[in-house]
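Work Package 4 report. The design task specified in the project plan requires that, given a folded chain encoded as structure tokens, an amino acid be chosen for each position. We show below one input record used in the internal validation round.
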């Protein structure tokens, strides 16, 4: 490794160590070098991509589930390529704007409560959308959710409805909290019933499509 690789490897190890403190499933020291190898290989193959600590969260499910670093690398690279392709079609700003519209239509009471508490929707929704909840969800929930995503033809289009479904599941708890507590909960989600989350997400999508069809029919 050259000097730059050594510096990035050190940063990866530091981020993995922090990540392992809250994810017991991958606390074994043997995982650390796998993270370094996979993420460095990705960065060296994609020279236009700069290292970001979020790469550790996005890489973790593959390191944990797959048997070899080679398999983990190719799956991780495919995910990153898919995210980049989706972002080139729909900018992050557009994704956040779409989600805010879904939030206001789907959960108007909670959205109004967030406005009252001056909760910055951009702060948490940007990460939720960009990182597929890899940072915020419990690790076992991420693995279960992504298992569903990778079997779908349109996981990125479906993802905002999952985010909305999570807010629905946590609605009562969130409405009992103040601004700083809401922020903390949204950035470190409790354990979730993923089957229920996915089912409610399908319902939200169906309702949104019906609403749009009705609006189009009124034009």
């Amino acid at each position: 490794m050259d000097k730059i690789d050594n510096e990035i490897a050190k940063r990866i190890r530091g981020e993995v160590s922090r990540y392992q403190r809250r994810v017991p499933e991958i606390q074994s020291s043997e995982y650390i070098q796998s993270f370094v190898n996979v993420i460095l290989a990705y960065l060296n193959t994609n020279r236009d991509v700069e290292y970001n600590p979020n790469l550790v969260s996005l890489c973790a499910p593959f390191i944990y589930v797959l048997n070899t670093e080679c398999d983990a690398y190719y799956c991780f690279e495919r995910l990153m390529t898919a995210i980049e392709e989706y972002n080139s079609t729909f900018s992050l700003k557009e994704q956040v704007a779409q989600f805010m519209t879904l939030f206001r239509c789907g959960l108007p009471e909670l959205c109004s409560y967030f406005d009252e508490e001056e909760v910055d929707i951009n702060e948490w929704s940007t990460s939720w959308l960009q990182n597929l909840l890899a940072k915020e969800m419990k690790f076992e929930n991420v693995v279960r959710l992504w298992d569903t995503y990778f079997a779908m033809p349109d996981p990125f289009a479906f993802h905002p409805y999952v985010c909305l479904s999570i807010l629905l599941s946590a609605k009562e708890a969130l409405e009992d909290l103040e601004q700083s507590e809401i922020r903390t909960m949204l950035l470190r989600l409790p354990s979730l019933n993923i089957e229920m989350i996915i089912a409610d997400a399908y319902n939200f999508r169906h309702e949104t499509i019906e609403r749009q069809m009705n609006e189009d029919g009124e034009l």
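The CA atoms of residues 84 and 91 lie 10 Å apart. Validation will be extended to a larger panel in the next phase.
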